[in-house]
Amino acid sequence: MERHADDGPQRLPALAALRAIARSLSAAWDLDTTLDLIARKTTEVMGVESCTIYLLDTDGATLRLRASTGLSPQALGRATLQVGEGMTGLAVAENRPVFAADAQHDPHFKWLDDTEEMRFRSLLAAPLVLEDRPIGALNVQTVEPRHYTAGEIELLALISDLAAGALAKAQLYDRQRRQLDDLRTLAQVSEAITSPQYLDDILAVVTELAARTVGASACAIYLREMGDDPADSDPPLLAHPPRAELDSTPLDPVLLAEVARGGRPLYVAQLAGSGAALLAVPLSVQERVIGVLACLGPPGHAFSESQEALLTTLANQTALAIENARLVTSAAVVREMHHRIKNNLQTVAMLMQLQLPEADRLETRQVLLTNIHRIRSIAAVHEILSDQGFRLVNVKAVLERIAQTTMTGMARPDQPVRIAVRGDNLQLPSRAATAVAVVVNELIQNSLEHAFVGRAAGRIDIALARTPDALMILVRDDGVGLPDELEHNLGLEIAQALVVEDLQGELQFNRLPGGAEVCIRLPRAAEG
């Protein structure tokens, strides 16, 4: 790869192009719009047939295709490179532009499935860097071989610098927009804080709201545990829910007891040992203290009088909500348990009923194992709900549990198979998450049963990603691949029905050069 002399005559057009891009980016806000704008404007000012943007996943090692003007739209969110892999990955790893007039003959070039980039010959890739930290890569391609000049390389590097700042702004905007949505939700909850709700849900919302309101690093609620002895005037204080305990900086029970006994706020500018600031206010109902709301600030943080007043008001409202919740908790828990258990049993019954026509041909042990894993996949959703205390489920966490339990129960000891889950943390309502869990469980079991016949070992990769208009879950194996005539067994029929009918999505089966891939594509509205 040889560099060319700088093209002085191109300097003014390059500056004009940069100004045009800067003006366009100043009007963009959200991430999807910014990505699309960068790709289109770069294609235009560089005079190329394709501009592609990869962004780093949260693992810091995987570059995921997020926008392109020339590659197949089907590859968005799916195609990935590792840092150092391919010419684009090399540009990120070495923090420098990488280019070739005939890229497909470059030793670093890597062909990605489904991108349809074989028609392009040249490639110039530049890293996207923000404050010495790589966040992705930007590359351009042409159909005809092209020897990129030093001026063109410099222009793309400058565009990359502009793009990195714009993408950082867009990511911040998206985060702030999500935070605003959270605050709106919390505002709605606070308006209904005295209505019957689950106690743990109320307390989890209140601690999150309190932390945001006063700028605390952590908040927890401690409630007095009323025992059987009515004469006990100083019962112990326990964190509710238990996970709300401030583990990183355990609070002195004497300080909490002081607030509960005196019924007055307590402010400690620096706690012994940690240096953290503490603001604790009593939870009072009709001059009766039922607990303490405690907030910690980082060392050097100071809580203001207005924050103390605001926290006291919130604590008083919370105390009323706790009293109301305690009155209805038993009945509400029974109703919710009945509802969830009924739905889960109906799902299990439906799956077993689908097996009835084939009962005479099925092996009893295999049927039992299959249904055990289906039930466990449903249970994984509710374990996450129990841990988080909210109605939305982290699908990635669910699939990690399913992968672990399925490998434990179904993998052959003489045939090691690795299952990896990576990508975005998709959040789905419990019903949709349950359907996704069952579908992925069926696909994993199908791969373990059919993909690695005659193989000594294998690998199953599960990737989750958001695109501008869809949520995608990819289940890919490096096994023997799909047969010429794909026959949908019961498990695949279940997966097809759940994706299409319950989730209003699509299920696609793709043949790969070294294995098979199933793509679950859901509308973005599923996140609601």
Taking the sheet with the most strands, its summary is: 6 strands, antiparallel
What general form does the structure show? flat
Summed up, the domain count is 3
Named CATH topology of the largest domain:
Beta-Lactamase
Q: So, the CATH homologous superfamily of the largest domain?
A: GAF domain
The neighbouring-strand order within the major sheet is 3-2-1-6-5-4
| Number of H/I helices | 11
Number of strands: 18
Poorly predicted regions are: 1-9, 227-231, 329-334
Give the amount of beta strand, in percent: 15-25%
SSE pattern = HHEEEHEEEHHEEHEEEHHEHEEHEEHEE
Using only CA atoms, what is the Rg? 28 Å
Highest CATH level, the class of the largest domain: Alpha Beta
What is the annotated CATH architecture of the largest domain? Answer: 2-Layer Sandwich
What does this structure look like?
The chain is an alpha+beta fold and 528 residues long. The protein folds into 3 domains: 8-176, GAF domain (Beta-Lactamase), CATH 3.30.450; 194-227 and 235-326, 2-Layer Sandwich (Beta-Lactamase); 362-527, Heat Shock Protein 90 (2-Layer Sandwich). The protein contains 11 helices and 18 strands. It has helices at 11-26, 31-46, 86-94, 150-191, 199-214, 253-262, 305-355, 364-388, 395-410, 430-450, 490-502; strands at residues 50-56, 62-68, 80-82, 98-100, 122-130, 133-142, 218-224, 237-240, 266-268, 277-285, 288-297, 392-394, 417-423, 427-429, 458-467, 470-477, 506-512, 515-523. Strands 3-2-1-6-5-4 form a 6-stranded antiparallel beta sheet, with helices on both faces. The protein has a 5-stranded antiparallel beta sheet with strand order 8-7-11-10-9, with helices on both faces. The protein has a 5-stranded mixed beta sheet with strand order 13-15-16-18-17. Strand 9 and strand 10 (277-285) form a beta hairpin. The model is unreliable at 1-9, 227-231 and 329-334 (pLDDT under 50).
